[in-house]
Amino acid sequence: MKRRDFLQGMAVLGGGLLLSKTPAMAATGQPQQQSGIQIGDVLANSAIVWGRSDRPARMWVEWDTDQGFAQAKRVRGPWALSPSDFTSRIELTGLPAGRRIHVRVGYSEAGNGEFSEWEVGSFMTAPVALGPVRFLWSGDTAGQGFGINPEVGGMTIYRTMAEQEPDFFVHSGDTIYADVPIPERIEVEDGKVWKNLVTPEVSKVAETLNEFRGRYRYNLMDENVRLFNSKVAQIWQWDDHEVVNNYSASKDLTADARYQVKSPTLLQARATRAFFDYAPIRRSGSEGSEQVYRSLPFGPLLDRFVLDMRSYRGPNSANLQTEAGEDTAILGSTQVDWLLAQLKASTATWKAVFCDMPLGLQIADGDTKWEAVANGDQGSAKGRELEIARLLKGIKDAGIQNVVWFTADVHYTAAHYYDPAKAGFNDFAPFWEFVSGPLNAGSFGPGKVDDTFGLQVVYEKSPATQNLSPLAGLQFFGQVDIDAENRAMTVILKDLNNDTLFTKVLQPA
Questions:
Q1: Residues 198, 201, 206, CA angle at the centre, nearest 5°?
Q2: Which residues, other chains included, contact 110 with Cβ-Cβ below 8 Å and sequence gap of 6+?
Q3: Residue 296 Cα distances to 116, 310, 380, 405, 417, angstroms
């Protein structure tokens, strides 16, 4: 039933590409929904449902386990108002575990029973019993000026991912590229031309709150993205391009003529507001609505741990400090302690850690600074590596097993094995890290390896020439299947055509 329901939904929702609402629909006088719906942070009995109206209106949500909504439960949501860019969300509770939930969202202006047309979707709740699990992950949407190209059908990798019928998807950061304009055309490899749909908000770097929000509205113009959002529950992280490239406390925009707003802190404040307006994320935690790191259990086979390497880092630097301190933070001590406690408490077979940057690749910020964890020193842990060394040692000392890391950021796909026998710092248990992306952006790589944690490249696929367009086909996502009987985890690296590039089967300890 799950597959049949899913494919029927695909047929209903996927009839056309890049089509906006028709004039006849707009002429009804009722609120309109042009951004589709999103479902996020799904647990066994709850989920976040997101929508957006085109005017002030109250959100209403109906849900049922029946695709025909024969016994639909109606829930009154909040008002969508201009301070949130007319976005709204509600947490559905009391959902049955391990079921496909059908949902529809409408908006009413006057409370008189007249609604906008319903936006319809579905998602899987987390199981409480043993059963197979499938999830996808990737990152990096609409980067390097590569936006929605109608001539190639838009962002088609999203449709490819939807067709895999995952239980959920993790977007591992760079959900938008606020710092890169999207032009009408770009001359790319082999004499080809990439042609974009363009809006005023994406035609320049984002500085105002409306321009940051406009980046999210732009991605939701793509029919493939809206289809995917309606059929697959998501987990969002963020990285740097939601604000500005290589964002940290040391970011200096003084010489960047593209920016009239020279304060990275002000840009970060506006970017944060836009992110939480548009992300289908549950707002919770001691730091309120701006906390991104969180744990999301998904039944007896899988616990999900979502990290934030952006909000608590010290300034990008030479990254060679020999003593840990605020300037060497990448996760921050509070987040490290939280993760260790959550991992210790987990009873699930697999612990999936979703991280917005790889641990052992050298990622530079200019000529003298480092953007990620590694510093190219190749020896003992220094700088931000000190914090990661403490985390990895803590995992080993606590006897925590079956921890697997998933990430994006570097715009190519790879399988990394971290081997303490080949590491400068070796007080940790070996582990795997899988890399995938981009979704619709330029392709880069491969990155240089740092030996501090013994990174061994088992597989990688990247372009021979940097910043190839999506026309070159080097767009990637990862798929993970966990078997309910033997509990093995199979990780598959795929491209936008769903071709399998690499497979690794991990047996549980």
A1: 125
A2: none
A3: 33, 20, 33, 15, 25
Q: What is the DSSP letter of 141?
A: B
Residue listed under structure tokens 């995952």 = 166
CA dist., res. 268 & res. 49, Å (int): 25
User: CA 119, 15, 223 angle in degrees (round to 5)?
Assistant: 65
Residue 3 above 90 pLDDT?
Answer: no
Mean pLDDT estimate for the chain:
93
Task: Output the CA–CA distances (angstroms, integers) from residue 94 to 47, 91, 294, 377, in the order listed.
Answer: 10, 10, 21, 52
CB environment 382-400: b (16+ within 10 A), e (fewer): bbbbbbbbbbbbbbbeeeb
Q: How far apart are CA 419 and CA 44, in angstroms?
A: 35
Quick one: tokens of 141? 């949407």
Peptide bond just before 446 cis, omega within 30 deg: yes
On whether the pTM is more than 0.90, the answer is yes
Query: Parallel, antiparallel, or unpaired for β 431-435 and 413-418?
Result: antiparallel
Q: Which two tokens stand for residue 181?
A: 């304009």
Residue whose pair of structure tokens reads 């047929």 in the numeric block: 11
pLDDT at 267 over 70: yes
Question: CA distances (Å), 277 to each of 35, 87, 119, 298, 485, in order?
Answer: 13, 6, 19, 25, 40
pLDDT digits (tens, 9 = 90+) for 162-196: 999 999 999 999 999 999 999 999 999 999 999 99
Cβ neighbours of residue 465 closer than 8 Å, sequence gap 6 or more: 189
Distance CA 429, CA 232 (A): 34
Helices 385-397 & 333-345, crossing angle to 10 degrees?
Answer: 20
Structure confidence at residue 15 as a pLDDT band (50, 70, 90): very low
What angle, rounded to 10 degrees, do the helices at 264-278 and 209-219 form? 40
Q: Say if residues 112 and 146 touch (Cβ distance below 8 Å).
A: no
- For 200-210, write each residue's pLDDT tens digit: 999 999 999 99
